[in-house]
């Protein structure tokens, strides 16, 4: 079986000394930063990205994946103990997880989150291993028009499913696309949007954009908010869930895993929506729906499994098509390009060690989280007790020094401040910054594929609607956009992505 | 909610987008447009800039209907201090070296919150600077000038 030989290759990479070391370092650092309140995976990854810069691509990617899982797990810990979601997908975990903590059951809540995540991670890992090769083989037949259309579809779904105003989400995508074009145009050598600065001829670094718009802007917004935290540190005792807890959680974990695995693959969806849907699903299935919101363990087990499964299968489109569908995946893809690997369906065949090493290391990362995090819980609880006034200077200095090391230029640090301000202004005006990052990563790829398509068709734009795959994707995109004009569907969507804070 | 249109989030956001779009369109006007068959470097940025202006206009026009009032909670101090500290760091890093610049950045950014605690901030700046130097200069072996030039 090819699958087994591939997985064997992957585990040989992931289980090598370096593989294990970087996975461990990534998971630890990710959890360490991710536990900090108000710091989600996106900020964590962007702050820690420069640290991976000097590593080999496969080690760097393993470490990044570790950071990603660690950050997500750290986010759940914070959600349960402090009722502060580090990211939108842990909003749901707050609902029942924090109620459990209030009742002195923080231990079982954290344990079930870890166990559920691990099971979901294991299953969805198999899904990735099974489906990614097929998808990439299929995608190898794509020409430029298909790529262009699939990117349009990806961006449209991201806009439709984002929370808040759709016009604002589309605007942020378009702004991201424009920013992504800065630097030297590959076809003509023209410098675009460089403002005469030689440092900008390679374009704006996506890490600067991500750190500024998420990291700095978030820090400033957090300082502006008065600090009000309730920590249930003293009550984290008897970690292990009881037999009744396990029994109650078994089906929610199974259903969450299935739901998350499917939703993770679809463009534009992802962790937040899968955790919300899983919560709603468990409430429907439960014989005592009234317990939800008052510390029902099913309300933690299901969503946590769902979001971890989705987080994992989200790598399928990112790695096989080269099309990220959320901010975190955009960062991962940006990291790939940073390491000199052109994203797309050829990655799997041209860098099999990298792809399968990543798949295997995701599983090992999940295992490490399960084994290491519960004993280390005491440390995370202590971290949570550290006041924000001592934490944010640490994030600021990490960001600044990290950004400087990307290109050894002070201009990057100045740009960091600029994007911090831009991010803050847009957040205050209710624009979500994540779509901008998507556009930023996809901008150059979209332009390139548009140009190639037009060369292919000798300037006839109808090429996009005469090729079956391309027209199908554009049609789906159009239907999605049109459906948002129907009030009933729009309200349903708003319910589904509501409280996505 | 009846409030002044000038304090409306969507109206302001729309105007901002129109302004950014106009700026981008103006800049990309100087890049060759090319033809549909052979698109020049100006085609994509110019079209996107126009699209952004259109979206901004749409947002601003709909603002009286669905925009909310802008609330700038928390004051300007954290904004100015944190961004100022980062800009200051950019200025001093190369002449002063990593150690002093890190301490300056940490102390300066700590001014963002009130009340300022001198002893705590100094201890924090020393601790974090040691961490940063160990991480970047030693563990990651990034060639940093640690001390001011000429020392």
UniProtKB/TrEMBL annotation, chain A:
It holds the Pfam family TctA. Residues 20-438 form the DUF112 domain. The chain crosses the membrane at residues 7-29, 35-55, 109-132, 138-160, 167-184, 204-223, 329-348, 354-378, 390-407, 413-443, 464-486. Keywords: Membrane, Transmembrane, Transmembrane helix. InterPro entries: DUF112_TM. The keyword Transmembrane helix applies. It comes from the Bacteria. PANTHER family: TRICARBOXYLIC TRANSPORT PROTEIN. This is Tripartite tricarboxylate transporter permease.
Automatic annotation (TrEMBL), chain B:
Pfam families: TctB. The chain crosses the membrane at residues 12-31, 43-61, 81-109, 121-140. It comes from Ancylobacter koreensis. It comes from the Bacteria. Residues 12-144 form the DUF1468 domain. This is Tripartite tricarboxylate transporter TctB family protein. Keywords: Membrane, Transmembrane, Transmembrane helix.
